[in-house]
Amino acid sequence: xxxxxxxxxxxxxxxxxxxxxxxxxxxxxxxxxxxxxxxxxxxxxxxxxxxxxxxxxxxxxxxxxxxxxxxxxxxxxxxxxxxxxxxxxxxxxxxxxxxxxxxxxxxxxxxxxxxxxxxxxxxxxxxxxxxxxxxxxxxxxxxxxxxxxxxxxxxxxxxxxxxxxxxxxxxxxxxxxxxxxxxxxxxxxxxxxxxxxxxxxxxxxxxxxxxxxxxxxxxxxxxxxxxxxxxxxxxxxxxxxxxxxxxxxxxxxxxxxxxxxxxxxxxxxxxxxxxxxxxxxxxxxxxxxxxxxxxxxxxxxxxxxxxxxxxxxxxxxxxxxxxxxxxxxxxxxxxxxxxxxxxxxxxxxxxxxxxxxxxxxxxxxxxxxxxxxxxxxxxxxxxxxxxxxxxxxxxxxxxxxxxxxxxxxxxxxxxxxxxxxxxxxxxxxxxxxxxxxxxxxxxxxxxxxxxxxxxxxxxxxxxxxxxxxxxxxxxxxxxxxxxxxxxxxxxxxxxxxxxxxxxxxxxxxx
Length: 510
Known about the structure:
The chain is of the alpha/beta class. Helix content is 33%, strand content 14%. It has 14 helices and 12 strands. A 6-stranded parallel β-sheet has the order 7-8-9-10-11-12. Strands 1-2-4-3 form a 4-stranded mixed β-sheet, with helices on one face. A two-stranded antiparallel ribbon has the order 5-6. The longest helix is centred in the first third of the chain and has 22 residues, at 153-174. The protein is elongated. 48% of the residues are buried.
């Protein structure tokens, strides 16, 4: 078979877009639904594509097949999804797609946010997961098929419902007091918003490699950090952010049909999203600056927070792990992957003030006691040596100035330093204490957990302490740090320790 005789299975016109200005998003939109071995024809008048497209193919595991000159400046590029050797002997050609004029979805804003509804109280020493739970293999397959446009949304949601039932059943067997849905519908704890927000698109992390200064070095960095870059997807913004459908409200509503225990829902925090969504190479047509996109991030998170509290969610947790990257890495140090926060940052004091202001802008006017903030030092691999280290001392002033009622913190791992540095947190804030390390397969003993909890009780007082693992068990769907069996055993160990503590302090069960 010669390349000149090959017929594309799909085709689109990219016009004069270059790879850093939207063409990669269009390529991804057209190539994802194709089977491996299928051919995509890309028409382009942009000269830089001639060099950038073969590089993108090399980095993403697709095969650059050919380039042909058309009339004028137009060239036709042929790309195979996967390897050309995987191509079936006969392929039915898909109809040619007309030139794509990407039209952002108009953004509507609600006139009034719903008011919070009553929710079950969360008692002292309550046990809960941080958020993510290992997904079954069949759900991971469904996730990929959905992201690639090969599985209808209704079928995916039905499949995900079954996985959520299993995750909640496991938590209840373990004895938790507060349930989560295990983030089963999400490809990761943060990037999933790219598939929910208007004018945002999820693309594999490898698609961004041709756009960074040194793609080969960055690819090597991801491999060294044990990040499955070909499977992890990253949100890319191509228009004003909107929320015509909820981010996680549908997750919460289903979760609350499965249990009458208090429900917790985790969301990526506004600072994390500002660092994740602001990629200058992809957002320059939609937003002028990071401050510009941050205003819309605050708006959509406020809308989501209002709906979650209005639905009766007991605790909404904003995840801000990238704060550790701000204080534990310097400008000359090799940056941490930190779960996809790829954009550049300023000095630590500027970034911490920015994060504080964003969190307070999201939470202003909402009941503080139903809002939490979670922070860790990286949770994409069981290898502790690749994750950041440092105590909370540089962050305590920022925490104290944030309008959140609970801080759910990584405290079991030695990388987190001593808990005593948190003593100066305001007395009206709760502290969720990480008492087991989700990265380790060893199940901590009840005595170990009781000892860690007792230390927290001496520092903060009984009424202020909640108990949980250091972080989630499966930050990335494809790369969990623990199995579901180990996750359940670790939560059960925390629950057993809590029963002993409640007996000691004569606390009634929640």
